[in-house]
Amino acid sequence: MRVRLRRGSARTLGAMALGMVLAGCATMPDSGAPAPDAGSQDSSTQSTRLVVVAVPPQPGDGPADLLVGFLDDLVSDEADYTTAKEYLADPGSWNPAAQVMVLDHLHQDPVSGSPASGKMTFDVTGDLVATLNSQQDYTPGPSGPQKQVRERFSFVRNSKGNWQITDLPQGLIIRPTDFQRLYESVDLYYPGKNSTGGAGEPPLVANPVWVRIRIDPLRDAARALANGAPPWLGPVVSSAFPSGVSVDSVSTDGNGAAKVVLSSQDNALLDNRGRCDEAAAQMLATLGSVPDQQGSSSQQVRSAALYDHATGAEMCWTGTGNAYEPAQPPGDATAYFVDAAGRLDSLDVISGQAVPVPGQLEPAGLGIGAFAVAPGTSGRVAVVPRSGQDLYVGNLTGSSSSQRSALHAPPKSISSPSWDSTGTLWAVDSDPASHSPVVAVTDNGAVRVPVTVKGLAAGDTVAGLRVSDDGARIALIVDGAGSSTAEVGWVARSGTPAAPVMTVFGLHNVAQSLNSVQAVSWMDDDSVMVLGQSPTSAKALSVWEVDGSTALIPSPAAPQTTSGMTSIAALQSEPDLTKAPLLGDSNGDPTDSGRVYLWETGVNVWRKVRTEGAAADPGPMPSYPG
Known about the structure:
The chain is mainly beta. A hairpin with a 5-residue loop joins strand 15 and strand 16 (344-348).
């Protein structure tokens, strides 16, 4: 099982456990304009592990003071918000797990009532930056006037003369800096629906959620997984966990073995070993995505065992290399590019040695305009000639006569081929007469599937695509309204093997600051690298999380571009960039056209690995399988 390259590894928060304790730190002004964020941790203090202690209400506190104290306690390191509930007349009326609202530019203003009347209401207003729902899914806040929200708190003085909160919004209200300190993204893994990977089982598909990293993130991630996939993800994934399963505890030992204790009235896991093994594989992949614990063991989870709470017996166990794991990298980090003679070469990215592939990949004389090598060991390859009229599917060692034309269209219609680990080949089909701008090819090139892409605006066209290894997500470069954007959507599969149906839904712009996108590549299960620029910046590389959270918690900085870079490639399944460096080109630089570059992490430079350029457009197109 691979160790994922997460943003948490690049953040300094929690790097040193100095035991600093903060109590009663104010995060809210009493009234009027927002005050400086005195109680939240800014970038200058995030190198220290700060322990925020909840403070109970004090005798004589008025409504304004109570509101400040209550909101301060929401960002404490208390697991169950027991102290915060002391501010409430009826603690049972409030569900802190209902949602998390991340608000900026907060105001606290009295609305009605007076101290003399014994009743008062206050409004808390602010700009909605993001929301976590009850299933911990992240949603970016809206833009424009709709981003301001107003939440009302009601106060009553009780018979003892003390003020209490009698009515309040469900969930939490916190600031962006507190969200950055308290929460971290983890991936919940589910078997892909109606798809089969190289091991014969559905590849596990990642869905990012956010957990409180300072409490018990392993347990919280396990509980979120056992609750099942959200309904909207039903067309894409399934889950081996039956309804009603709950997680009591998660513990790990020094060898990276996780023990997960489950409670359930349903014996489906106990009675079905295959289902239990699948559930354990989901759990292993999920726990493996949890970042290093704040001050606790950073041992990578390498195995997972599910235990029955009622009997204490082990139900099932799984380790790395099981059949249900996420899409896996190939055995070696081999890349491919088009050489000066217009032929496809394989490239050992560690040694820099290149060798022409033995096969004839397209009819002689047509040239390679785009290509994609399938992940795994099948040796399948797809080639689009420079004419852009055909999509040939064959084998790296085959002859031109063995290549099958899986798609034919008018000139310059077909582009951007991309494979996933299920053996499905994807491509852009810009033929105006086509039923869809995206086409999928299955059954070794025999079945052509027009893909329904929901969410494209009228007049939008697809200029490029890259499918994720698991085949459950697809990144599109969408041209429309004078701009090109990076859009990511989910892939739903249905129908039969002979007549498959594929639909892309949930399409959303993951790099909203960019309006001129040239290339995309998957970095890992839930992030993409984008080559593009904004209206006010030069072309650059940047990394974006697919749930839109990059705007709140930036991803690690991406390498600088090479001069004239037109393409970028990352091996999605291998997060160690020393084993599988980023690849780029310089095809847009007339003084250095047609070169292949790789990123050296040790010295943080682009190293030229090939000195001879391609003889014809569109250039060397360095790429990993996928």
